[in-house]
Amino acid sequence: MSTYKELKRACFEANMALPKLNLVVYTFGNVSQADADAGVFAIKPSGIPYEELKAEDMVVVDFENQVVEGKMRPSSDTRTHGFLYQRWKGIGGICHTHSTYAVSWAQALRDIPIFGTTHADHNTRAIPCAPPMADDLIAGDYEYMTGQQILDCFQDKQLSYQEVEMVLIGNHGPFTWGKDAQKAVYNSRVLEEIARMAYLTLQINPDARPLKASLIQKHYDRKHGAGAYYGQESC
Amino acid sequence: MSTYKELKRACFEANMALPKLNLVVYTFGNVSQADADAGVFAIKPSGIPYEELKAEDMVVVDFENQVVEGKMRPSSDTRTHGFLYQRWKGIGGICHTHSTYAVSWAQALRDIPIFGTTHADHNTRAIPCAPPMADDLIAGDYEYMTGQQILDCFQDKQLSYQEVEMVLIGNHGPFTWGKDAQKAVYNSRVLEEIARMAYLTLQINPDARPLKASLIQKHYDRKHGAGAYYGQESC
Amino acid sequence: MSTYKELKRACFEANMALPKLNLVVYTFGNVSQADADAGVFAIKPSGIPYEELKAEDMVVVDFENQVVEGKMRPSSDTRTHGFLYQRWKGIGGICHTHSTYAVSWAQALRDIPIFGTTHADHNTRAIPCAPPMADDLIAGDYEYMTGQQILDCFQDKQLSYQEVEMVLIGNHGPFTWGKDAQKAVYNSRVLEEIARMAYLTLQINPDARPLKASLIQKHYDRKHGAGAYYGQESC
Amino acid sequence: MSTYKELKRACFEANMALPKLNLVVYTFGNVSQADADAGVFAIKPSGIPYEELKAEDMVVVDFENQVVEGKMRPSSDTRTHGFLYQRWKGIGGICHTHSTYAVSWAQALRDIPIFGTTHADHNTRAIPCAPPMADDLIAGDYEYMTGQQILDCFQDKQLSYQEVEMVLIGNHGPFTWGKDAQKAVYNSRVLEEIARMAYLTLQINPDARPLKASLIQKHYDRKHGAGAYYGQESC
After folding, report:
1. Which among B93, B90, B89, B97 has a CA at the least distance from the CA of B81?
2. Which chain D residues are within 8 Å of A104, Cβ to Cβ?
3. Which residues of A touch B138 (CB under 8 A)?
4. What letters, b where the CB count within 10 A reaches 16 and e where it falls short, cover A191-204?
5. How far apart (Å, rounded) are the C-alpha atoms in residues D106 and B66?
6. Of C137, C140, C173, nearest to C152 (Cα)?
């Protein structure tokens, strides 16, 4: 019996949430769940349709990209997941999709401005769009460098991965993360809604401006600040 | 056994209509139902997913924000509900959502113009967008002042809360109300459709104008006027 | 037992198709089915939610607006239906909705240009948008005059109701008709799709032009011309 | 018992996927599956609603448009399918729909630019929009010439049908193909999503540019190149 049964089950369930939340068509997405102590993560196998996916199909990989358990080839984006788990302590899940509105902002090479409290309930900054990487990096270890691309983007824009749990890869699509795979999937769904609302906002008013700093801070703090009062104590 | 069993059931059922009507993702919404004689209202507990919600979870609160019955923390927007019940006699339900199109108009800081009879069947005015409140009020009793913000907006624009049962909070989203919680939810669904149609109307014709006064009045009156002839006598 | 049992059943089934086809929210629509020989039609009762509707609730009315059978008040738009049945020989069903894209074109006061073969498969002309009627007519027998408004529009634009089975009432929404109620509903669904595609076409290319006359005629004729070869012989 | 039972079943199942994937309304689409060795293909009968369709209704036709088996009239677009099977060796399925976003680009007479990796995962070129054909060809053997129109478009733009498995017919809609009918349907679904994302991209940033050549090639090659590493070995 597998040592990673629970890890694989958690990863499987988070993956299965993607089609239910309309965040993927066909196989255009993947979620992983990490076990930081064991230094491994479970991830979706590459190219398998969600309707055929089983918990035991999840592939367990270490942070150096070696398969630890599983018969199938892991997601083609596995290197990006491993790169981020290795560098960002405390994240336990990563989600990548090609969800429609998030991808459209990524293709437009635009950060998503913070226009309202739906966005500020989750973080206080524009959702960053990482610029495409250099040609030689694309030709090299592309998926590993996608992790670097995300890291560089957060450094350039002075963002904290603990606050902003989402990024757009320019001309590609979104990556999100969180304390576990379910939170990463939650962030993907929230990002898609924020992306859709920001798009519509600019269509209605091309001169729309970010909401004011005091309102951003109020909404962020009531959910995440020291005196947070959203949700139940135990949540 | 609870004195408020029926109140909580009505509140619960109205809340459960939100995901069914595609007006919320996750927990981004709340509905309350008031008992004016008892001076209390039942409201959704904060941060509980709709799929886990039960009628007995509803929290009963008085108009001064004291919990009368319930083990959970009420919605973070409870103060706004209480403020409005205290001032607006005759309303028995309030609904708050982050529905996509209504939020987008709120983020654009634009009133929704009255472009057609779908809108005029419900009221005769543009749906108002209340401007963001001052920084010191945001830092203070924010949710209470959100109620004040709505009141001020209706005063500034000389609107009747009995006719116009909906408002947009700038950079945030919609609040709606009515004789009971079900009517408030109905108004949220209607507002979302009006918001979507108005958005599309301006995309098709950026110079679109409100419909003429005689047509607004005709449609409003055939549903709500003295000689109303829409629906059945008993409705 | 009712003489009109079959008429009412056909009317009921056509009405129930509206929510299934996403053409209505709440009660914003109505369908009728006529029996030309008997000089009557069955129509939805006013303001009754679709989920509560029963076949026996349908109201039978003659072309002069007299209720022949039924306990409920017929749709508030009944006069418009009667007007058209009286004047347009051969139509057996009429459908009115507030479907999103068709309403948006109506609110924009724009005819829907003929941009592609999806449109030309059904008729060869822009879908007309009837301008709002004069104030005194609105204040008078409004629903009756809505019928007149449609008739005038078809005369002004030299359209045949036998070819173009759909119209937009400016600032209001669409009416469609056909040989029976099911065909009228079909036309409402097709109109909504044509309206959506035409909207998107103009967003992608604001200088988009109608398709050429030879292609319009080819597609119309292969479905409706003398040598039509679409569908099965018996259809 | 039919020699073509399996061919018809495969064709039927691919057709039934269209409504499930929201690619058709009513009967606006058709799929065929070919047996190259036998020189025949099965195709949907003309004008039959999907909910009534049965596997045994599929019509078997040879590449010269002669019905080999089946009581019904084949799709009105059958000649286009036959034309392509005759000329493009190795394709085993063809799909035609009036899906909303693909049709809108076709009506706008615009190629769909390659804005992101979702597109580059499938081919390396803009999705071509074939210009409308000359009037005399429309009046002649229209559906046969639609095949010629596609061929001419691919020649003019120097495209390979083995790489780019999709085309837009100007003012009409998309045709897609692949190794079998299921792959053709898959391509229709992917095209619809690419068309929707490209539309949104240009709405967000009217100056959006195609992604860079190195990134296009990387994504295409990791799925389709000599060293492809997407999916499982056996896929």
Report:
1. B93
2. 197, 200-201, 203-204
3. 214-215, 218
4. bbbbbbbbbbbbbb
5. 61
6. C137
Question: Which chain C residue is nearest to residue D111, measuring alpha carbons?
Answer: C204
Q: B104 CB contacts (<8 Å, ≥6 apart)?
A: A197, A200, A201, A203, A204, B195, B199
Output the CA torsion sign for C220, C226, C230, C231: positive
Query: Token pair of A6, please?
Result: 């629970």
pLDDT at C235: 41
CB contact under 8 A, B232 and C73: yes
Which value does ipTM take for this structure? 0.96
Chain C contact present for D178, CB below 8 A: no
Angle between the N-to-C axes of helices D5-20 and D181-204, in degrees from 0 to 180, rounded to the nearest 10? 20
Task: Give the pLDDT band (50/70/90) at residue D235.
Answer: very low
Show residues of chain D in contact with C205, CB under 8 Å: 108-110
What is the 3 state secondary structure string of A71-124? CCCECCCHHHHHHHHHHCCCCCEEEEECCHHHHHHHHCCCCECCCCHHHHCCCC
Q: What is the residue type of B180?
A: D
Of the candidates C193, C204, C229, which has its C-beta nearest D25's C-beta?
Answer: C193
Domains of chain A: 5-224 (3.40.225.10)
Q: Could you tell me the two tokens for B209? A: 């104008």
B52 by Cβ neighbours in 10 Å (0-12 / 13-18 / 19+) ranks as: exposed
Query: Chains with 3 or more CB pairs closer than 8 angstroms to A?
Result: B, D
Instruction: Decide if B197 touches A, using CB distance below 8 A.
Output: no
Q: At what angle do helices C181-204 and B181-204 cross, to 10 degrees?
A: 60
Comparing CB atoms, the residue among A26, A103, A138 nearest residue D197 is A103
Residues A116 and B100: beta-carbon distance below 8 Å: no
CA of B231, closest CA in chain A: separation in Å? 34
Based on the number of CB atoms within 10 Å of its own CB, is A97 exposed (0-12), middle (13-18) or buried (19 or more)?
buried
CA distance to A91, D101, D174, D212, D224, per residue, from D126 (Å): 38, 15, 14, 13, 17
**Binned average pLDDT, 10 residues per bin, chain A of 235 residues:** 91 98 96 97 96 97 96 96 97 98 98 98 98 95 97 98 98 98 98 98 98 96 91 67
- CA-based nearest distance D29→chain C, Å: 11
Chain C: give the shortest CA distance to residue D57, in Å: 12
Alpha-carbon A182 to chain mean position = 11
